[in-house]
Amino acid sequence: MKTCRLILLTFLVFALSAASQGQISSVMFPGGGNVRIDDAPQLDITGTISLEAWIYPVAKPNSWPVIVSKSLDVLEAPWDAYALGLTDEAEGQQHAYFQLSNGSTFVSVATASTIPLFTWTHLAATYNGDSLRIYMNGILNGSYYAPGFTTQTSNSHLSIGRRNLAVSNQFRGFIDDVRVWNVARSEAAIQSNLTQLSPGDRTGLAGFWKFDADTGTTAFDSSGFGNNGVLRLNTLYAAFSPQSVTAGAQIALDPVSINFGTVEQYQPATVGVNITNNGTGVLVGYVKKGGASIGVASTYLFYISPSSPIPVPFIVRPLESGAVSDIITVTNNAGEPVSVPVSGNAIAVRRFDANAVGMWTLRNGQFAYDPLQTPSIHGGLEWPRGSNLASVYASGVWLGAMVDGQVRVTTAHYASSFMAGPIAGGLPANPQNIRYRVYKINAGDNSSNNIDFAEWPADLGAPTNPDGSPLILGDQTLWTVYNDADSVARNTSSTFLPLGAEVQQTTFGFADPNMRAFVDDLESHEDYIVDRTVWVR
User: Fold this and answer.
1) Sign of the CA dihedral running 360, 366, 372, 376
2) Whole-angstrom distance, CA of residue 65 vs CA of residue 67
């Protein structure tokens, strides 16, 4: 066994798819991603215009969900050059809107009717130089008089599923057959081409994304101009379209309740649940938070063909420490939402706070990363503590080495490839063990007033005094141990093989109310990297 000792000072370092159904498909938007089409002359439309799309919304993830839009060049602009989307109202009570902007002001119109969830709806919006009109399923549903309005051109991408370069304004659900025209389509033309565009009816067609691929990340433009788009982030093709039969879907879950075991507070835990569609139509649903004790780290959108069970990952995170229980809801098109009891044990997160620095330290190698994602701070190292000012957004331990001519890397930053616990007998310890946590002791603590002092894990490598008592470095010491030996449980973003390294991390600092210089307020990291592999000589 070899050990390496590192001293680190933290300075101010700034669906699931059902079986394929041929070309009957759409694009699924779980949230966060979009289809992006590069700017092109055909898409810089200043006069008459029409926008069309089929949508199947399942939820309202945030404000003003965008179906298709072309942003103005100023990212902070509150409007788009042109946009079709959903209004910022309560989930299930949203209307569709159509908006144009000349850069200094905007005009818009909304549907009189609300847009139903878990239903395919065709939307079309037109401007003929005189009035804005918006249609639902080919029927006029709203108009606004705005003669002579000229839309401003922009160099921005055309974006489908959210605003360009913005994680907000996300659409959650499915979108199909997006069309952009430089003419104002008539109601008759819209009605006669709801599901299929006639080859002889293409005058003024500037862009047409049919989303008829089965796989891949290219959104092909069928207008003839070749302005293909890219499916980005978690956006993907789905064998589900306005032609799919949804009536008669049924939902069954196995198990009907789940236990995520033991994780650190606010950290995600993934539990697989088999969802079966026992009906005759396509089952569509998503997993969302139901209570206040357990959150959903990633809202999962799914669609399932009849009689096709699939494993759906419930990615939950406890919002409280200790034994927690809550309800996770599976909203679906088969009927009433399904409530799933969820329980588990959450280890309390620890924060260095002995002086003017406030810094989170997690048991998986992440530090200076806020597991709460506190909106007012936007970072994991707050300085001065209590100011809501972050010096560092996220940090962590990075290890790399060349092994038999092969590069191996393990990192902890926004996510981590480390697991809590040591390596024993060449194997990673079970991270479910509550002993593998972040221990925090302060000057003056003892076994009666601090359980971390009483349970100080000297046998795992935590520093001790000659008499075996916990060694308090400075005025506050945090200690934890983690490893990268589990090649299966490593973060999925890592494509490298594990190093087989165990890291014993000590974080400590001094409390001095008279400190003036920032460097005097820095906490220190002392990491022992214990090599448990055979490849280091």
Assistant:
1) positive
2) 7
pLDDT in tens, 336-374: 999 999 999 999 999 999 988 899 999 999 999 888 877
Phi-psi region of 492 (alpha: psi -120 to 50; beta: other; left: phi over 0): alpha
Give the number of C-alpha atoms closer than 13 A to the C-alpha of residue 294, restricted to the C-beta side.
Answer: 31
Same domain as 356, residue 342: no
Is there a contact between 370 and 380 (Cβ–Cβ < 8 Å)? yes
The pLDDT tens digits for 475-489 are 999 999 999 998 776
Q: Can you give the pLDDT at residue 122?
A: 98
Higher pLDDT, 213 or 38: 38
Give residue 494's pLDDT. Answer: 59
Residue 32, domain CATH: 2.60.120.200
Distances in whole angstroms, Cα of residue 464 to Cα of each of 9, 365, 460: 22, 22, 11
Torsion of the alpha carbons at 117, 118, 119 and 121, rounded to the nearest 10:
50
Quickly tell me which residue has 């799914």 as its tokens: 302
Per the CB < 8 A criterion, the answer to whether 11 and 280 are in contact is: no
- Please list the residues that pair with 106 across neighbouring strands: 101
Across-strand partners of 107?
100
pLDDT of residue 422: 96
pTM for this predicted structure = 0.83
- Token pair belonging to 428: 């990673």
Non-local CB neighbours of 472 within 8 Å, separated by 6+ positions: 441, 442, 443, 445, 508
Q: How far apart are CA 225 and CA 240, in angstroms?
A: 26
Q: Is residue 21 part of a domain?
A: no
Which among 235, 306, 304, 233 has a CA at the least distance from the CA of 273? Answer: 304
- For the ranges 89-103, 155-169, 178-192, 431-445, the lowest mean pLDDT is seen at 155-169
**Residue 261: domain span:** 251-347
- Please determine, for residue 515, whether its predicted confidence score (pLDDT) is greater than 60: no
- What CATH number has the domain bearing residue 324? 2.60.40.10
- Which residue is it, tokens 């210089």? 517
